């Protein structure tokens, strides 16, 4: 029983009950105003206040003032709700009973005004309080009838008062039952609304934490939603949705257009910018008419494909190396013998030099390919880049005879760690530094080569820059293709091998021309493999 009372009290402290009481307070103020105005302007019905005009005038004025005060108290939500309900309903019963008496009693029909009060009590008051309000209204009607009888009215109206009292109790019970049903429905609706809101927050949290990028587009191509992964993978500079996809990411917008027009192969891997990872999109149509686009980083798939490619390359090179190197050795040996036998003939010497030089170049290419095919399985380890790069550059400077002003190291993330095979990292960096040193200008006052370690978004990046003339646009398209080199005596496999090694370790090697048109090669280590201790 105690728990039931507690539940009822807590139920009637909610904002919905206050709003219902405010509506009833507004009705009271309107009713009091009508009763006052009709009497003073002598509008019909004429029986208002005809028995005792002075009493009616006083009570109607007090009732109007009280209604205004109670409306203010209710709007401000002053006091305890149940006390407010009791006080207001008692004032209504007393005031209306006196107005009914001053107007001629129950025959005027004004007793129906008390039914509204009882209904309000049944809807607003918990449990037995509704029955108490009905009992008070019934008692007030009986007192009014009894007073009229004693005052010498002559007509007995107890039957009418009894019927009205029974009506009070019935309407109170019905109002209580309907109020309980409505409150239960409201509680259920509020619970469902909270569940939906919580589910929306949960979905938003899940989407924001997904490694896969998510974009939502309306029928006009406007981005209505995107998560953090999509912003990073596509390089979206905006932080809030509401922009047109075609203006920001035309390449992705074109693929979605092809998909919407049933192109057989609409989605292909692409990079939003050169420094961003390669991604692939997929899309689905929602019942609401929106298009949901998924953006997936292809690094993991590229890494697996790279392992398969290297395994196939290993089997291929193992099977043909012997067949190539034996004839190549015979050609080289024959050239050496010919050069020894015809050393006095300049024309023959020139031709044998060509044979020897190109034999050495072919042999170098075979050695490089064999080195790739024999590469051991990737064994990533935690590498503290700042310390590792300092040791590596010291080794490279010693080999090139350079000082610290020629090859400099800039560190913005001194505690950055990445997961990569140290031997393969050494090979990648050696290829990049060798290229940068070869194409740099020794006579420039600036450092010939600069290596920078920094943190960008959720990635650790290592940049290798030189002060050279940069890379032509025509060459840039084939920069990472094998056997494509402008370097005298080069095999064209250095950058290709460096990118392959990076992909095998889950990293990404890209070329970024800077504002001075010099060369900048960047190794980007993915965020899920990095550990950054700032």
Task: Walk me through the structure.
A hairpin with a 2-residue loop joins strand 8 and strand 9. 59% of the residues lie in helices and 12% in strands. The protein starts with a helix and ends with a strand. It is of the alpha+beta class. The protein folds into four domains: 193 residues, no CATH class; 88 residues, Beta-Lactamase (2-Layer Sandwich); 74 residues, Helix Hairpins (Orthogonal Bundle); 152 residues, Heat Shock Protein 90 (2-Layer Sandwich). The chain has a five-stranded mixed sheet. It has a four-stranded antiparallel sheet with strand order 2-1-4-3.
Structure keywords:
12 strands; alpha+beta; 5-stranded mixed β-sheet; disordered C terminus; 16 helices; 12% strand; 59% helix; disordered N terminus; 534 residues; single chain; Beta-Lactamase; Helix Hairpins
Concise overview:
This protein is of the alpha+beta class. The chain has helices at residues 2-11, 15-40, 53-76, 81-103, 112-124, 128-150, 158-209, 228-234, 245-248, 250-260, 299-341, 346-373, 385-400, 422-439, 473-476, 494-504; strands spanning 213-217, 223-226, 279-285, 291-297, 381-384, 407-411, 416-420, 449-456, 459-466, 508-511, 520-525, 531-532. It is built from 16 helices and 12 strands.
């Amino acid at each position: 029983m105690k728990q039931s009372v507690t539940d009822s009290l807590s139920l009637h402290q909610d904002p919905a009950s206050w709003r219902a009481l405010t509506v009833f307070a507004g009705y009271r103020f309107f009713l009091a105003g009508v009763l006052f105005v009709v009497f003073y302007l002598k509008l019909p019905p004429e029986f208002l206040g005809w028995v005792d005009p002075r009493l009616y005038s006083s009570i109607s004025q007090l009732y109007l003032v009280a209604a205004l005060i109670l409306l203010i108290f209710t709007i401000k939500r002053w006091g305890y709700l149940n006390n407010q309900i009791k006080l207001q309903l008692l004032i209504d019963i007393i005031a209306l009973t006196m107005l009914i008496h001053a107007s001629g009693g129950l025959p005027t029909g004004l007793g129906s005004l008390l039914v509204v009060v009882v209904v309000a009590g049944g809807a607003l008051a918990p449990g037995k309080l509704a029955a108490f309000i009905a009992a008070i209204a019934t008692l007030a009607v009986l007192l009014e009838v009894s007073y009229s009888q004693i005052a010498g009215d002559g007509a007995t109206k107890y039957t009418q008062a009894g019927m009205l009292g029974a009506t009070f109790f019935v309407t109170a019970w019905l109002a209580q039952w309907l109020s309980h049903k409505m409150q239960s429905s409201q509680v259920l609706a509020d619970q469902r609304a909270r569940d939906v809101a919580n589910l929306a927050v949960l979905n938003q949290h899940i989407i924001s934490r997904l490694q896969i990028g998510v974009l939502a587009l309306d029928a006009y191509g406007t981005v209505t939603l995107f998560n953090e992964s999509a912003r990073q993978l596509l390089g979206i500079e905006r932080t809030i949705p509401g922009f047109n996809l075609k203006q920001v990411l035309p390449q992705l917008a074109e693929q979605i257009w092809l998909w919407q027009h049933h192109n057989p192969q609409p989605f292909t891997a692409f990079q939003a910018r050169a420094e961003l990872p390669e991604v692939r999109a997929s899309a689905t149509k929602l019942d609401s008419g929106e298009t949901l686009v998924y953006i997936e980083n292809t690094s993991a798939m590229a890494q697996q494909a790279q392992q398969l490619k290297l395994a196939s390359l290993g089997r291929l090179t193992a099977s043909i190396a012997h067949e190539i190197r034996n004839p190549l050795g015979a050609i080289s040996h024959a050239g050496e013998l010919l050069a020894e036998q015809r050393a006095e003939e300049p024309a023959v010497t020139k031709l044998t030099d060509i044979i020897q030089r190109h034999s050495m170049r072919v042999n170098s290419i075979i050695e490089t390919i064999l080195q790739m095919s024999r590469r051991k399985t990737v064994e990533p380890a935690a590498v503290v880049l700042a310390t590792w790069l300092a040791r590596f550059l010291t080794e490279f400077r010693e080999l090139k005879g350079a000082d610290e002003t020629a090859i400099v190291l800039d560190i913005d993330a001194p505690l950055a760690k990445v997961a990569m095979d140290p031997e393969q990292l050494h090979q990648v960096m050696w290829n990049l530094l060798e290229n940068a040193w070869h194409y740099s200008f020794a006579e420039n006052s600036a450092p010939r080569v600069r290596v920078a370690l920094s943190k960008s978004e959720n990635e650790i990046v290592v940049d290798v820059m030189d002060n050279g003339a940069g890379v032509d646009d025509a060459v840039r398209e084939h920069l990472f293709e094998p056997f494509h080199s402008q370097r005298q005596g080069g095999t064209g496999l250095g950058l290709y091998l460096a990118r392959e090694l990076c992909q095998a370790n889950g990293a990404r090697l890209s070329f970024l021309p800077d504002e001075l048109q010099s060369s900048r090669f960047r190794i980007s280590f993915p965020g899920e493999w990095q550990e950054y201790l700032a």
